[in-house]
Amino acid sequence: MARGCHGHPAAHLLDDFGGTTCHLTLFHVSGIVRAGYRERETVPGDPSAHGPGSSGGARFVRWRAIVGAALVTASAFGVVFAHRAAQSPPETRFLVLTSPVEAGEALEAHHLGSVAIDLPEAVDAVSTDRSQAVLGRVASHSLQPSELLSESALLDDGRFTVAGETEIAISVDPARTPVGQFATGDRVTVLSTSEAGTTELAAGARVTRIDGDEEDASIGASAQLRIGLALADIDEARAVVDAAVSEELTIVLSGPGTDEAP
Fold first, then answer.
1. Domain-terminating residue out of 131, 153, 175
2. Which of 14, 51, 89, 246 has a Cα at 20 to 30 A from 112?
3. Cα(42)–Cα(45) distance, integer angstroms
4. Considering only CA atoms, which of 145, 168, 153, 147 is closest in space to residue 106?
């Protein structure tokens, strides 16, 4: 038995290594003492020189430990970053209803609040930076408190902002219309001409649409120019519709500040 190996409880494990000087090494792992050995002298060409106790094996174990430690560290950083991302408050605020809004009612500032929330881009929601753009627009259906405000819940700017306003679409002869001289939002006067003369049907009608597509459906489909009009009430709308079927319509554009057509 080699010097330094006698008297240790694990010395009998080394009997098979007679002649080889050995050194006992104690490893303490989780409170358990274990015995091991490493060779102090080797014989050239001995295959055991490349065994667990060789420098090559030690380098392999050392690199494996380094790689393992790096993976553990990377995982720890990943967990920390994920936690911080989850704890970061949302940066974008969206408009939310704080009181009921009925269909046809114009949106006002007291109807709205805001909430910070993360939403996918596909979600139809109005952010607070567009709050001024939605004030005054009319709700297309009833809205309830705590509901996120969406663009689809509002009519286009200027539509049905006056109580009782009625929209119609008519077809008119481009030769009897100042094409290119008025645009959506302008106020116009609608005249009708028959054998009895010319009559004013609607003054101050607001233009909601101008379209020359012949495939669009409208009253009086024989003409080429389609115009959408917002009229004061249903009676005025009825008068224009009747005239569009049996009489010639003319659109008159009045100058700024003119209440009636000349």
1. 153
2. 89
3. 9
4. 153
